[in-house]
Design a protein that fits this description.
The relative contact order is 0.17. The protein starts with 7 loop residues before the first strand and ends in a 6-residue tail after the last strand. The protein contains two helices and four strands.
């Protein structure tokens, strides 16, 4: 197991940040993910349109655990 060089990063939080700061954080994360070939999993509530547009794929979950409403490329889902 390679704990020192993960390919999946999880637990990204933008809670408490204003929309401009959240956008800066997400742009940095996307740049790092692309340059390091990482998959980033995160939970984000009510993202701005600018932050939403940075996601490649989206999975929208329902209140019931384990159920999803929709998923797909972020550009093909309405925001």
């Amino acid at each position: 197991m390679r704990f020192f060089n993960p390919k999946v990063v999880y637990s990204l939080r933008t809670t408490g940040l204003d929309s401009g700061s959240a956008l800066i954080v997400m742009k940095i994360v996307k740049k790092l993910a692309r340059s390091q070939n990482l998959t980033v999993l995160c939970t984000i509530h009510q993202p701005s349109a600018n932050v939403y547009s940075l996601f490649d794929q989206i999975c929208i979950l329902a209140p019931n655990p384990g159920n999803h409403v929709t998923r797909g490329l972020s550009q093909t889902l309405i925001y």
